[in-house]
Specification:
By secondary structure, the protein is of the alpha+beta class. It contains twelve helices and 13 strands. The two termini are 19 Å apart.
């Protein structure tokens, strides 16, 4: 008999530097207007992004100066580790566990490179056992929270009685740049923020939800839709403007295929929880699934309060949903580089 895997806890964390969108517009004008002639025409992007505030790794003045890759790497090592530990400690506390109870640690992060990876750097601070398995995951971007949850559940199921800690940490703000400015850089400045989320899963204990299924769908010939460009100053955002139309055209068929592998259809899902990649992405998903405008209300709330934090964002949405009461069956989904859709199906406990 296959072991049931439950989510025991879920916690989130954000850096202390809170920026209102109006402050971001003011700073962006200061940064971009002299470097990007068409910037004034693009300022409505900030007002229509659906973001009221976001939290950043550094105070806003830090971003007003040119930064090298070592500058960004130093901030990533410091702030990402702090967020990792804050989110992980809170998730462990909610589950009534300590770091020594964890058998496997899955760390998801695509906005920085740290070797040794974050969970190794956190061993002493959190008290992980020396025999705990470490599974760092890079390159899955905005899909990382859902992909990581799926992977963590599979690892817990593979060893009945084991406990797995998943931590997603992203510092999207480190990709903000003054050099080689593109329209995509401006759009990313309007929507991205920093944050972390962590959850504990177990195949030997009850929790607030059971992971009953997971699936992915990767579209061929879509590598240019989303990802990073690498240059001398660090990682730069790649975002195709055609993403919302692509979602409107493709996501329903892909979701139907992923659900069919679990013996389910769209009508069997009581609530879709989606990664809020941006306001147009939210609207495209609502339209594709026939949910009605405004149905993805929690997604709009998270986007407004935190911006798009990449991988942890979907878990922020799940955290709000479970605090208000999960329905019988929920599908958590996200889209990321590949171009890939990732889903996890949850049954409320």
């Amino acid at each position: 008999m296959t072991a049931a895997v439950h989510l025991l806890s879920l916690a989130t964390a954000t850096p202390p530097n809170v920026l209102d969108q109006d402050d971001v517009v003011e700073a962006a004008t200061q940064i971009f207007s002299a470097r990007f002639p068409a910037f004034e025409r693009m300022t409505p992007v900030f007002h229509h992004a659906g973001v009221r505030a976001r939290q950043m790794a550094r105070p806003i003045d830090w971003y007003l100066k040119p930064r090298t890759w070592p500058d960004r790497a130093q901030v990533y090592d410091e702030v990402a580790l702090d967020l990792f530990c804050e989110a992980a400690t809170a998730a462990l506390a909610e589950a009534g566990l300590t770091g020594g109870d964890i058998d496997t640690i899955v760390t998801v992060s695509t906005t920085g490179i740290s070797t040794p990876s974050l969970e190794a750097r956190a061993v002493t601070r959190i008290g992980f056992r020396s025999d705990a398995a470490r599974v760092p995951v890079f390159g899955v971007g905005c899909a990382g929270g859902v992909t990581g949850l799926s992977l963590a559940a599979r690892l817990a199921r593979a060893q009945p009685g084991s406990t797995v800690l998943l931590v997603c940490v992203e510092l999207c703000s480190l990709a903000f740049r003054l050099e080689d400015l593109t329209q995509t850089d401006i759009i990313s400045t309007a929507i991205f923020g920093d944050g972390a989320a962590a959850c504990v899963l177990s195949s030997g204990a009850e929790g607030f939800a059971e992971v009953t299924g997971a699936a992915e769908h990767t579209w061929p010939d879509t590598l240019d839709i989303m990802g990073w460009r690498v240059d001398a100053t660090g990682l730069g955002v790649v975002l195709a403007r055609a993403l919302p139309p692509f979602i409107s055209r493709e996501i329903k068929t892909a979701m139907e295929s992923m659900l069919a592998r679990q013996g389910l259809g769209l009508d069997d899902v009581d609530r879709f929880l989606c990664h809020p990649g941006g306001m147009k992405v939210i609207e495209a998903i609502e339209g594709a699934f026939g949910l009605g405008q405004g149905a993805l209300d929690l997604e709009r709330e998270v986007l407004a309060d935190h911006g798009n934090m990449s991988s942890p964002t979907a878990l922020f949405v799940l955290d709000r949903a479970r605090r208000r009461g999960l329905p019988r069956r929920t599908v958590l989904s996200a889209l990321g580089p590949g171009f890939t859709a990732s889903t996890v199906t949850l049954a409320a406990a």
